[in-house]
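Researcher: Here's the sequence for the chain we discussed earlier.
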Amino acid sequence: MPASAPLDIVPLWGLAIALFVGNLLCEECGFRVGRLIGRGSNRDSDTTVSTIVAAELGLLGFLLAFTFGIVAARFDMRRQMVLEEANAIGTAFLRAGMLPDPQSTSIRGLLRRYTDVRLEATRGLPIDHVLARSDEIHQQLWTEAVAAAARDSRSVPAGLFVESLNDVIDLHSARIMAAVRSRMPLPVWVVLFSIELLAFFTIGYQAGLTTAGRSPVAMVLALALCAVIWLVADLDRPGEGFLRVGQEPMIEVRAMMKDAR
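Model: Thanks. This is the structure I predict for it:
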């Protein structure tokens, strides 16, 4: 299901390239500053700069582990939400079969349309349209449930269906919260990017102070860190990238609805 966040205006490939280029530019700027200061008499101690570089890289590693833990947990939560919602829809569909006509036929048709809308949400359908259609079908389902309960207020099948319908509506809200509104805060991204750029500036600065010059290992480090951050950003974007929550439970429920009479 697509989501919305300030950082989403930049595609994942663009984010990775921009960060990689930014790392190299910061490393080059740090190198030039280090070369300039290294010519003077008040140059920094290599030991001091090495300690600062190690501290910044350690802090960057901590932030990466912290952010990866957050997005991985939310990815697992979104996957669990799909399973729970599919089970709730399937249960509501089966219990609707115990209701008298015409409510039974009408409710089952609405649940089929509802499942199709939920599946279309993972295929690029605008999130606003998905939410509007879902809310509309919720209202129609509730109207049919009220009509079924009005026939017999003591009907056990009607009571069971209303309970299942409540679960469907509640899980809809929970899934929207997990997929759309529970995203990595922008300040966390800003701090992560800032620490990484500062770390590469310091790496270049250290190289500029020494007579050995720059090492191509810095480029390898930049590429590795960009790959990890790309993975974190991919996990944080439900509707973009390579890592997406599988919709097999919903597809199986829709297949069950198609075969049911």
